[in-house]
Amino acid sequence: MKNDKRVVLTLDAGGTNLVFSAIKGGEEIVRPITLPANGDDLDRCLGNIVKGFAEVLKEIPEKPMAISFAFPGPADYPNGIIGDLGNLPAFRGGVALGPMLEDIYKIPVFINNDGDLFAYGEAIAGLLPEVNKRLASNGISKKYKNLLGVTLGTGFGAGIVHNGQLYLGDNSSGAEIWVTRNALEPNIFAEESISIRAIQRVYAQQTHNEMDKNLSPKDIFDIANGQKQGNAFAAKASFEHLGKVLGDVLANAVTLLDCNVVIGGGLSNAYPLFAPAMMEQLNGKISTYNGQNISRLEVKAFDLENSEDSKLFFQSEQKIVKIPNTNKEVTYNCNKQIGIGRSHLGTSKAVAIGAYAYALNAIDSKAN
Q1: Residue 49's domain spans which residues?
Q2: Is 350 a domain residue?
């Protein structure tokens, strides 16, 4: 990918902002351009999408090979049609965004879920290769090939990479993690506790002041850290609430996927505040009817942002065992473990790299 000279225009579309860029050889070649999403006004949103790509085109000398970008689901991604979005309500009823852009720019357009492309970017050039590099440098032969990426922001998104390939599902609905069950409120879906609005709601509930819903997560983060006046106990509790629900969701996902997890999105900046509660869920216990406690996971989860946990993870125990009835020996990776960490690239850059790689793979597949 580093030696590929083709240019792809990218976009990370969220409920709040649209971030445009251009990628060549796996690197951004322009300073990203950010415009408001205006998700409740279709004409303004589409206008900003066209404007953003036009602004990027002014910054690059060569013609791009494709446009490839992230958009929240649900959608018919293969046909470029955006469906009924909670965070961008103007698209409800179906909007043929991909075909519209192909008609304007006369190049192929690829759209995927933002969580999918975030995970893909981190699997290609972020957390996953960094983990494998550090394991190899410590003389450990184990190599991770799969990754779950989750994004925490306006909403709660996810993507799965399996053996280096993006997993989309048969209906472009793979990894729709936001609608999983909320452990603390079983009749409510998880995103209601893992999102910007969740932090605001829980803080206001804790302070018994409805006006506190107007505070931003950054304000609440600063209150929790003593950098802004407010109720520090309530602020910490709002992030702990998020961590508990997130940890439960990740425990269910990891049970099925058995892979490392990378966390991105704006709320990932508050990782130190929600990570302890998250890890407590992942490495906690679950009970049988007769009262026996068993580990929640078949594997041990390590917080890669914690120095002690990280040290233990990258010193994974290996044994040399003999092959019965021979004089040969093999390496036995006897510890089952996964790592949980923050984005190594930054969310928008990871999405852009994922979008870039996906477009080039699709173009090359068609050519073959």
Answers
A1: 7-112
A2: no
- 360 domain-assigned: no
Whole-angstrom Cα distance, residue 240 to residue 328?
51
Q: Supply the pTM of this predicted model.
A: 0.88
Nearest partner of 37 among 77, 86, 80, judged by Cα: 86
For the chain, report the end-to-end CA distance as a whole number of angstroms: 18
Contact between 264 and 118 under an 8 Å Cβ cutoff? The reply is yes
Six-digit token string for 175: 């990894």
Q: What is the Cα–Cα distance from 100 to 98, expressed in whole angstroms?
A: 5
CA distance 263 to 148: 9
Is residue 279 located within the same domain as residue 131? yes
Q: Are strands 147-152 and 156-162 parallel, antiparallel or unpaired?
A: antiparallel
> What is d(CA 171, CA 17) in angstroms, rounded to the nearest whole number?
26
Domain assignment present for 259: yes
Question: Tokens 């040399």 sit at which residue?
Answer: 320
Question: Could you say which of 112, 140, 174 is where a domain stops?
Answer: 112
Q: Are 199 and 214 in contact (CB under 8 A)?
A: no
- Rounded-to-integer distance, Cα 285 and Cα 52, Å: 49
How many structural domains comprise the chain? 2
Indicate whether 139 and 274 sit together in one domain: yes
- pLDDT 10s digits, 217-244: 999 999 999 999 999 999 999 999 999 9
| CATH number for 19 | 3.30.420.40
Same domain, yes or no: 95 and 189: no
Instruction: Tell me how far apart the alpha carbons of residues 351 and 338 are, in angstroms, rounded to a whole number.
Output: 23
Q: What are the pLDDT digits (tens) for 143-199?
A: 999 999 999 998 899 999 999 999 988 887 889 999 999 999 999 999 999 999 999
The phi, psi pair for 166, rounded to 5°, reads: -70, 130
Q: Which amino acid is at 60?
A: I
